[in-house]
Amino acid sequence: MKTLEEAKRIFFSRFSSNQRTGPEEISVENSLARVTAEPVFSRMSAPSYHSAAMDGIVVSAEATYGTTDRNPRTLRIGRDALWINTGQAIPDGFNAVIMVEKVHQLDEEEIEIRSPAYPWQHVRKVGEDIVATELLLPQNHPIRPYDMGALVSAGVYSLRVWKKPKVVIIPTGSELIRHKKEEGPVRQKKGQIIEYNSLILSGLVLECRSIPTVYDIISDFEDSIREVLKRAVDSDADLIIINAGSSAGSEDYTAEIIGDVGEVLVHGVAMMPGKPTILGAIEGKPVIGNPGYPVSATLSFDQFVRPLLSSLQGYPPPKRKIISVQPSRDIPSKLGIEEFLRVNIGRVGEKTVATPLPRSAGSITTLTRAEGLLRIPGLSEGVKQDEVVDAELLVDEEEILNTVVVIGSHDMTIDILGDEIRRRGHGVRISSGNVGSLGGLIAIKKGTCHMAGSHLLDTETGEYNLSYIKRYLKGTKVSVYHLVLRDQGLIVAKRNPKGIRDINDLTREDICFVNRQKGSGTRVLLDHKLEQLRINPDNITGYNHEEFTHMAVAVDILSGTADCGMGIFAAAKALDLDFIPMEREQYDLVIPSSVLENARIQMVLKTIQSKGFRERVITLGGYDPSRSGEFWREVE
User: Fold this and answer.
1) Rounded Cα–Cα distance for residues 127 and 136 (Å)
2) What is the structure's pLDDT at 259?
3) What gap in Å lies between CA 134 and CA 128, rounded to an integer?
4) 4-16+165-179+193-312 carries CATH number 1.10.760.10
5) For burial by CB atoms within 10 Å, which of 189, 240, 558, 616 has the most?
6) Judging by beta carbons within 10 Å of its beta carbon (0-12, 13-18, 19+), is residue 14 exposed, middle or buried?
């Protein structure tokens, strides 16, 4: 396994930065974003004749000398002056234009002027903009819309540009199926995965001004992969991507096949995601074994394919804007591996806060939701919460300024809230981080969020959140707003095959439980119930198996990883699981009073109070939004 920089050096030294795809001639109309393969010289001057730059009259400047307000001059139309419009040619014998605003018309034949003109006044002379034979555009210049106008203006109607690189994409995997057939969408069976990496990679290739060709899905048979790879090498492709099969499993043949018919330059890059990347060469063509997980495939493309496609066309790859951010929590990282961590980013006071998204290389939504990338160096064991680090922006900086950062307990209505704000046409974005209710309160104390979602039960009073706010936010004035009442209980498999009835069953030997993380309101509620029933957590199998969201708990149960977990009804309903209700709890938004007048915060509160938001929440099931957006009290 090579470091990222070493892998790049090995790969790009084989495929020289001066290597190009070859020139082709195209019309100017089709040249937008193409790159010139040779310098372009003008074929004629622009303007090609002396022309008027203003509406007015054209005169001989010498005939107007001595004119003043006290000594005006009368000119006769047709003899001393002619009417002229902007862009019209200057007639022989004339050399200046007087604007119409400076002309006093006496009658149809005579006009009066009260100031002199000077030679070439308001006249665009031949070649003022472009002189015939001058260099118009240099080699390796990306064509912009105004370049197209300049080319035509200079009499250039076609030009030579670098050909768009052609990229063959080969998806592999016996479990893969296309998302649709000629007759319509396919029905996915158990054990089948809809193939979409080729769609992502094709889009990325198009972004790089290149031409993708996607081959049919190839099953995990060595001979089949070898045959299709040979076909791709024999084609006119400039680059070949084999997606999946790049790791070290029993059916991962990509590296072996590339090595047999060509050369493996690198197998394994010390980056995460993207570690199984293969960099090779066959008959002088670059071949990349791209990992099968979508995040890995995308990051591998960014590091190796994108720079190469740019180089083949003679332009540098675009650089993303770098900004300084502060993580919303400590982020540990594996020593020896350079990690690319997807994050949400928002501006909170003077801080720009980065909230980590899930690290799973198979989680495509971490790419759709990401606003930035944190690169954690291989020699680092992570980033501390109070550390300022660089992040690559994946969105416009304006979006970061319009982001409301919500940190705390996970709730599905937060996602509905973000979508409802956008549906109404407002530019506010919701960035949420799921660290538990207590983690949200601590984030407010540290000034790393705009609001926190909390449902912490005071087991002595039965009241939600207030006692915890007083304990952990002492000295910080906050306002508490109701978001929803929601049903908490035990999520179990469909039709409850193990006959779980209540918490007492969690101690059964045949029951495997999945818990929420320490500091979450759900964990507090569970521990309270266990204490009431005098149940020792050590007697519950899986008590120390923690997840950070209700949906993650539900997925564990759906997949059979666990038989039961504590969560909300809406998560059970979303995955068609059964639910045993235990408690209707209060979920609130805790907002520092100092930011209440912020227009973005007011937009969030207004949306929560809206009829549309409440109706959408009801459809989730297990929610009562009748008090959504209602101010409860201020606490200090």
Assistant:
1) 13
2) 94
3) 12
4) no
5) 240
6) middle
